[in-house]
Amino acid sequence: MTVLQGRNVALAISGSISAYKAVDLASKLTQAGAHVDTLMTAAATRFVTPLTLRSITGNPVFLDMFDPTTELAEEHVEVARRADAVIVVPASATTIARLAQGAGDDTVTLTVLATKAPVLIAPAMDGQMFDNEATQANLRALAERGCVIVGPAEGRLASGRTGKGRLVDTDVLLGALKLELAKRGDLAGRRVVISAGGTREPLDPVRFISNYSTGKMGYALAEAARDRGAEVTLISTVSTLPVPYGARLVAVETVAEMRDAVLSACQGADALIMAAAVSDYRPADRADHKVKKGPDHKTIDLEKNADFLLEVPESVIKIGFAAETNDLDANAQTKLAEKRLDLIAANDVTAPGAGFAHDTNVVTLIDRSGRSEALPLMSKYDVGQRILDRLAELLKAR
C-alpha cells in the first residue's frame, strides 16, 4: 500500500496551457488508489475538457458552484471537508491572486477557502508574469498561510522563451503530495540515513574498482521512508536515478567520502540503513596519470578499507544488507554480528529477479534475536516498506 492508497485528493485546475499535465497527474493518482475530486475554473475548460477528467478518474467534475443537479448539497464544502489534500495544478497568475485575496468566486477558490487539509499550489505562467512583484507577493502571502508552493521549474515556456514559470513534472507533483500526506506517518519526526549505490575506488584518473550496484534498492528505501514521514538523508554514489522529492542528497564516490558523510548524517539520526555496496578494498597507490599498457604484467596492490559502521553511535539503529551468492543465512548471520547490526536484509543476487539492476528483489530479514523472515519476490519499494515495518518496531521498542 502506498501513501496515496485510499486518500481523497481534490485536484483543482485553473486556466493555463499546462492544464494538460493535470490529466497525467489525475491518471497517476487514480492508478495509485486515490479518490480524485476534480474542480475546474471556467478558463481551465478551454484547455482540457471535463469529460477527459471524468473518464480518467471515474468521478464527477465540479465546475459550477450554483449547479442545481449536483449530488452534493454544497459541493465546494463537501469536497473540501473530505479532502486529505488539495492541489492546484496548474495555478495561473489569476488564480494565485484570487487565492491570496481570499476570493471565493469559483469552485476552485471556494474549495481552498473551505478546506482544513494541506493545500499545494503549483504555479505555471510566463516567466515575466511569475517574476512580477504582484505574483511574488501573492505567493509569499500564500506560503505564510501554510500553503506549499511547488515550483515552478525553469525551461522552455509556451511563448517559446526560456525562463522560470514552467509547471514542474508529474513526478515532482506526486512527490510533493506524498510528502505532505506522510506528515502523520509512523516515521514522522524520525531522521533516517540511507546509503545507495556502489562505491568507486580510483586506480588512476580513468579507471576504478567498483561493483554492480545500481542504487535502486537505496533509492526505493528513501522513497518508502519519505512516504512514511521520515526526514531522509540519502548518501549516494549514483547520479542516474531521480532523487525522491523531499530527500536530502549527499553525493559521494569513495568509501572514505561515504564514511565521512554517513558519520556526519548520523549525528542525531534515529536510524541508518546501509543499502550501498561498499568496497572492501582500495588500491594501495593511486596513479596521478593514466597507467599505460606495457609489455609486463601489471600487479595492483590493495589495502583493506576500515569498517566505519562500527563508528556509528550506538543510539542509531543500524540496518544492513548482505548481497551473497552462496550460504546466504550463514554469511548474513556473520555479517549481522560482526557489524553489530540490529537487522540485516540478506539477498541472493543470483536468484531470478533479485539483486543488482532489477526493480524487484527477494530478501530474508534477520534480526539480533535470530528471528528470520523470508520475503517473496516483490518490488524494491515494497521490500523497503517491509524493512521499514521492522524499523518502526525497533524504534517503538527503544
Describe this structure in words.
A hairpin with a 5-residue loop joins strand 10 (201-202) and strand 11. This protein is 32% helix and 23% strand. Helix 1 (19-31) runs parallel beside helix 2 (50-57). The longest helix has 18 residues, at 380-397. It has two domains: 8-181, Rossmann fold; 186-397, CoaB-like (Rossmann fold). Strands 13-12-9-14-17-18-20-21 form an eight-stranded mixed β-sheet, sandwiched between helices. The chain is elongated. The relative contact order is 0.09. By secondary structure, the chain is of the alpha/beta class. It contains twelve helices and 22 strands. It starts with 7 loop residues before the first strand and ends with a helix. The mean pLDDT is 89.
CATH topology of the largest domain: Rossmann fold
CATH class of the largest domain: Alpha Beta
Spatial shape: elongated
Number of strands: 22
Mean pLDDT: 89
Q: Gap between N and C termini, in Å?
A: 26 Å
The appropriate CATH architecture of the largest domain is 3-Layer(aba) Sandwich
